Amino acid sequence: MEDGGAASRGHSTFEHLAIACHDENGRIEKGLHGEYRGLVVSFGFEGDSSPCCTSSLQDAPLGRPRPRRSVAVPRGSTQTLRVPPFAAVRHGEGPFEAGKRLGTDAVVTGTIQKTRDRLHVSVELSRVDESAQFWSWTFDALPGEILKVEHEIAERVAARLGAKLMDDGGRLVRRETVSGEAYDLFLQAREQWKLRNPASVRTAIGLYEKAIQIDPDFARAYAGLADCYNITMSGIPAKVRYTLAKANAEKAIALDPESAEGHTSLAFMRYKLEWRWRDADAEFKRAIALDPRYQLAHHWYGEFLRLMGKTEEGITELKIALDLAPESLAARTDLIAAVVQGKHLAEARALLDAGLKIDPNWGAFNVWMSEILAREGREKESVENLWRWMSLRGVPMSEVDELRAGYAKGRMQGMLRAQVQQYLRQEVKPTSSASFEIATFLSFTYARLGDREEAFHWLDIAIDRHQDAAIHLLTNPSYDSIRSNPRFDQLLTRLDLKGY
Questions:
Q1: Which of 29, 321, 358, 446 is the Cys-Cys partner for 298 at CB 3.0 to 4.6 Å?
Q2: In terms of C-beta density within 10 A (0-12 exposed, 13-18 middle, 19 or more buried), how is residue 116 classed?
Q3: Are 128 and 36 in contact (CB under 8 A)?
Q4: SS3 label, residue 117
């Protein structure tokens, strides 16, 4: 799936701390006195009844302490410090526990307390092996100075550990934006994008555009905007999305050629919308080389590899993505898809069960539960699970009942024929954002019915409309009934998928 991964509100401090420690190539410029292998950063937040200064501080009930949250920042000789929030710290894990497990030498802990007109910041630096504090610092700032707070913490901690934060001109290295307002809008946009529905994606687009208006040189905002247009769940037709995704991804890289986010956005666009498979592969590898801990790069590269038929390689990348962001439902979903494709059904069930504990209402889990049940030969349970999911998703009961009646009349073939009729009605009169992929869905369904002529008819339409059918040709089992047909081979050649 098309996901943003692990980023969460309440952590702009951590990202700026990490980013500020990069050199121009995204690496630490100097060893931390040659003895610190990495950091774990943990901050608590408190507030009063007045509004908070940024989305980073506005989610918890005000007037009471916030739970402490952690982010791991392990580092080798060339590993970047920049990681998404919660990337490596397990749920409920304390900073010292995380530090020991991850092999880091130090932790940064602290609190940011908001009163009516001030931010009171407390920072402590401690050794993991002794759980002992060896440096602390407190200071006050104005509520509108959240970025200044972040940079102050980064500078002080790095100075204490011996890391270089300035370039030769005395400027902070790789500072993402000088505007706290732009960064706040960026964080809000990213949260909306992760919800993965047309309304939230459109909201994210508006927020990213506002951030760019404030700071036209904010590379990550352009990459985020490209990702909004990249994904099918935007509900925007592919031919409309394409030029917008391309322009924004290229702008992000023009502003920051070393941007892992920009190269990831471009890689996804290359395969999803341009069908330039080899170029996409190269861009994904470039993004991961720039930032090995950028979760979305591993996630989307894993999905790409799975779709290209490189199942085990895809599983490896998706496991890295899920390890970096254990709470990412989309990464978990795509890993389930990959292990099902690899016929590891027991592992798929374990991943699914764990995911349902995180969010039992995540729709894709129900879809994959139906798929797993079907592959286990439990057809009736599979379709009942599918109908239940459709009902929960708000599909009109009349449509669910049509599928039930079709199944009662002709089992799976009968239900598929009923589904074809529903898709054909949506083709004439679109009723949802999914209608933009109707030709793809019809090609799937006709192929499953064994109707080759109609399957190829709708495949041609889907490809002409630049829908997702092309990226599913190599691995989607729906097409198994037409793979031996010469026309299918011609399609693979036409799309440069032959022998990939």
A1: 321
A2: exposed
A3: no
A4: coil
Q: What is the pTM of this model?
A: 0.71
User: Across residues 432-454, what is the average pLDDT?
Assistant: 89
Place of tokens 């932790």: 107
User: What is the SS3 assignment for 108?
Assistant: strand
Q: Which residues pair with 111 in a beta bridge?
A: 44, 122
Q: Give Cα 458 distance to the centre of its chain.
A: 30
Pick the CATH number of 12-161 from 3.30.1380, 2.60.40, 3.30.70, 3.40.50: 3.40.50
8 Å CB contact between 211 and 219: no
The DSSP secondary-structure symbol of 109 reads E
Q: Please give the distance of CA 86 from its chain centroid, rounded to a whole number.
A: 13
Q: How many CB atoms lie within 10 A of CB 257?
A: 12
Q: Is the Cβ–Cβ distance between 404 and 395 less than 8 Å?
A: no
As a whole number of angstroms, the distance between CA 126 and CA 109 comes to: 8
CA atoms of 275 and 267, how far apart (whole Å):
10
Domain 180-343 sits in CATH at 1.25.40.10
How do residues 234-265 score in pLDDT, each as one tens digit? Answer: 888 888 999 999 999 999 999 999 999 999 99
Q: Tell me if 82 sits within 8 A of 4, measured CB to CB.
A: no
Q: How many whole angstroms separate alpha carbon 308 and alpha carbon 311?
A: 8
DSSP symbols for 57-99: G-SSPTTSPPPPEEEEEE--SS--S---TTSSPPTT--HHHHH
Q: Name the nearest CA neighbour of 325 among 79, 7, 78, 2.
A: 7
**Domain coordinates of the chain in residue numbers?**
12-161, 180-343, 395-494
Amino acid at 454: E
Cβ contacts of residue 324 below 8 Å, gap of 6+?
5, 6, 83, 84, 87, 88, 293, 295, 298
Interatomic CA distance for residues 282 and 272, integer angstroms: 14
3-state helix, strand, coil in the chain (%, to 5): 60, 10, 35
